[in-house]
Amino acid sequence: xxxxxxxxxxxxxxxxxxxxxxxxxxxxxxxxxxxxxxxxxxxxxxxxxxxxxxxxxxxxxxxxxxxxxxxxxxxxxxxxxxxxxxxxxxxxxxxxxxxxxxxxxxxxxxxxxxxxxxxxxxxxxxxxxxxxxxxxxxxxxxxxxxxxxxxxxxxxxxxxxxxxxxxxxxxxxxxxxxxxxxxxxxxxxxxxxxxxxxxxxxxxxxxxxxxxxxxxxxxxxxxxxxxxxxxxxxxxxxxxxxxxxxxxxxxxxxxxxxxxxxxxxxxxxxxxxxx
Length: 275
What we know:
Blueprint: H1 5-23, H2 42-54, H3 59-73, H4 89-117, H5 124-236, H6 253-272
């Protein structure tokens, strides 16, 4: 069966177009390559730089906490209160006892004056009175001394305990700041990284669309020629041709050429076989 005359010129034109089309390779570089891979988003770069700059930023707080713990350890032990004793403790004691001694001297003199008035100066009754006075005087003086020393000790103990608590609070505060610094830094880096990845995804989607458009454009002439050949084959009564590829991921250009050539071989047989 020969090709109808009205299709012969069309078939010859198709043959020329097919020869010209297959002579020029499809430029796959137009829709492939690194230009269609989204690069690092500025927010991702910012997240990386922030993470680098923040490495060890919590260390000053941690060191301050360690220092506070060390100072707190120095406030333990039975002699820890000594460093909090008032430097004026002895001066206060001496002044107080001097005042007490002056009062005692006046009391002693009063006993003698009373003995003189009673005509018993130097007698036994005066001696007994002075003895009782001196005994009470010593007890009172010792009590005052003990009280003053106890007050100084208690005050120093309280100050030592307060300093111990202060150092503990300072250590806890610095540790909290250290943890906060690390946590807030991690949150900032994560937020920037996530936003950067989101924007990078949008960019990648746009690049993928561009690559698909470029692929479609690269395959368009071959698709058009395939449709031409398929239609021509059907008009001539041949059924060997198959549909053209889908540029979105179907057969390769080479498979398309083979598919089209299958039908065209029969077409050319009709065109040139029966002369």
